[in-house]
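Q: Hi! First time doing this. I have a protein sequence and I read that you can turn it into a structure. Is that right? Here it is:
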Amino acid sequence: MAKTQTVADVMTPDPVTIDADAPIREAALAMRDENIGDIVVTQDGDVCGIVTDRDIVVRAVADHKDPATTRLGDVCSKDLTMLSPDSSVGDAVRLMREKALRRLPVVQEGQPVGIVSLGDLAIERDRFSALADISDAPANA
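A: Yes, that's right. Below is the predicted 3D structure, encoded as structure tokens:
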């Protein structure tokens, strides 16, 4: 019998985390420097939200909020769906489909240990799909 693949097998480990009280500029700089599109937001070390590059644009820049003073906690998504590392890949696919999500924080005992994205799952499930090709391609400079 084949072993069920877990989220730990496909997730990106050690996600970038920033405290909810930090300014959004700090998240934008981390996104640029790490070439990523999301940051796991924490409060006292525990996951409390996720912020994407789109969140920063739509919830802050478009509303003329100052990136140096607007807190991440003010623009991040807080109603999170999270998985544990031992959740099945099938559960991740189902949750993303049901809730129209593109990424899910992976948490163990309240601590962020990874993030699984739609692209990660596309690469794993259908290596020859257009989404897998795009997700696996080198970043634009």
